[in-house]
Amino acid sequence: GTEMTRLAEKTGIPVITTIMGKGAVPTNHPLYIGNLGIHGSYGANTAISECDVLFSIGVRFNDRITGKVSEFAKKAVIIHVDIDPASISRNIEVKIPIVADAKNAILALLDKAVPLEIAAWKKQINFWKQQHPLEIEQKSETGVTPLAIINEINNIFDNAVITTDVGQNQLWATQFLELTKSKQMLTSGGLGTMGYGFPAAIGAKLGNPHRDVIAICGDGGIQMNIQEMATAMVYELPIIICIMNNGYLGNVRQWQEMFFQKRYSSTCMRYRKSCSDTCNTPSECCPDYIPDFISLAKSYGASGMRVQKKEDIKTALLEAKKNLKAPTVIEFMIQREENVLPIVPPGNALKDMMMGGEEAK
Fold first, then answer.
1. Which end of the chain is more exposed for a tag (fewer CB within 10 A), N or C?
2. What one-character-per-residue DSSP string does 201-234 give?
3. What's the average model confidence in pLDDT over 10-38?
4. What phi and psi, each to the nearest 5 degrees, are found at residue 146?
5. Is 286 helix (H, G, I), strand (E, B) or coil?
6. pLDDT in tens, 188-209
7. In angstroms, rounded to a whole number, what is the distance separating the alpha carbons of residues 328 and 319?
8. Taking Cα atoms as reference points, which of 243, 245, 217, 255 lies closest to residue 340?
9. Mean pLDDT, to the nearest integer, of 318-330?
10. Residue 179 — φ and ψ, nearest 5°?
11. What are the pLDDT digits (tens) for 206-226?
């Protein structure tokens, strides 16, 4: 990570990461632009689409990163460093292949690096970054938004490992988490396995007993490995489990809303046999959520809190931080149809991002 930062500083080249690479350069660094890909930021995706040289280090160029392959970084000479020769030019045809360990390659580049005259280009990228900053459509009346939750995590914890589950909770975390030398993120990107967040947090806490460990989970993903609460209890691991509960398998629901005319199917976690098959409008009359996560936490002997108002987010996290002998579950009741934005619709180029508000084609 430090070498990567030094290379960026020495050359002045702006840096974009994949979701898995986030944190390679501190996220608050002036040269860091954001993530690219189907949920990448406007600044990052536009910079990739317009650049004329692209250094890619240890990147697989998977479909979540590239969008429509024929349109990806069309104007760029691509230099690809990877330790595995088979992954070079497999998904994206590159001009200059370099088979090497990433760190060795960066050190070799550092040797030759000189400051580049690219002030105008950096200014242009910063303009794009400011034109459409990452935000959340404020659908929530209570103010308990993913952004508000993650902002408080950023403010309160300065030496932490943050793990994520898979789904919307993960995408918001990769968009908004502040990562530095002392704040790391563990996320399941390659195979996107739901249920990863909590067991990963247990491993992180065992390996880093003196750091705060926070698991950001969805209400669907947490239930895949909830039995590990027993493990966390018997090992006396004070992990903070933040469940963002929107009562849906939110990522699939978002695709059903945006690309399948809101034909919700098998995504509502509050569904009962007696509900109408065609229901796609969450309302006050929805049945109660099963399980009750607070009672569930208590059944393991852990503490549980439910947060329904913005002003309680900070209090709950500070309360959880005081708990030194056992896990704490905080259930954040977020807006039921909150979406992750921007999004590049399937089959589209990165520059065809939907920023929110417009209808999917």
1. C
2. HHHHHHH-TTSEEEEEEETTGGGGSTTHHHHHHH
3. 96
4. -55, -40
5. coil
6. 988 889 999 999 999 999 999 9
7. 9
8. 255
9. 97
10. -115, 135
11. 999 999 999 999 999 999 999
CA dist., res. 159 & res. 182, Å (int)? 5
Other C-beta atoms lying within 10 Å of the C-beta of residue 129: 20
% of the chain beyond a pLDDT of 90 = 92
Tokens representing residue 248 in the block = 């849906």
CA-CA distances (angstroms) from residue 342 to 299, 354, 355? 39, 5, 5
Residue 361 is predicted with a pLDDT of 47
Contact 159, 211 (CB under 8 A): yes
| Predicted pLDDT of residue 82 | 97
The residue extents of the domains of the chain are 2-131, 146-333
Question: Helices 42-50 and 119-131 meet at what angle, rounded to 10?
Answer: 140
Whether the predicted pLDDT of 137 surpasses 90: no
In angstroms, rounded to a whole number, what is the distance separating the alpha carbons of residues 43 and 246? 28
**CA–CA distance from 310 to each of 135, 144, 148, 178, 288 (Å)?**
16, 5, 7, 20, 22
Q: Which residues pair with 235 in a beta bridge?
A: none
Sheet order of strands, 303-307 included:
183-186, 160-164, 212-218, 240-245, 328-333, 303-307
| Integer Cα distance of 42 and 341 in angstroms | 10
Q: Is the fold of 2-131 the same as that of 146-333?
A: yes
CATH class of the domain whose range is 2-131: alpha beta
The pTM of the full predicted model, rounded to 2 decimals, is 0.94
Q: What mean pLDDT is reported for the chain?
A: 95
- Per-residue pLDDT at 124 exceeds 90: yes
Distance in angstroms (rounded) separating the CA atoms of residues 203 and 197: 10
CATH class, 146-333 region: alpha beta
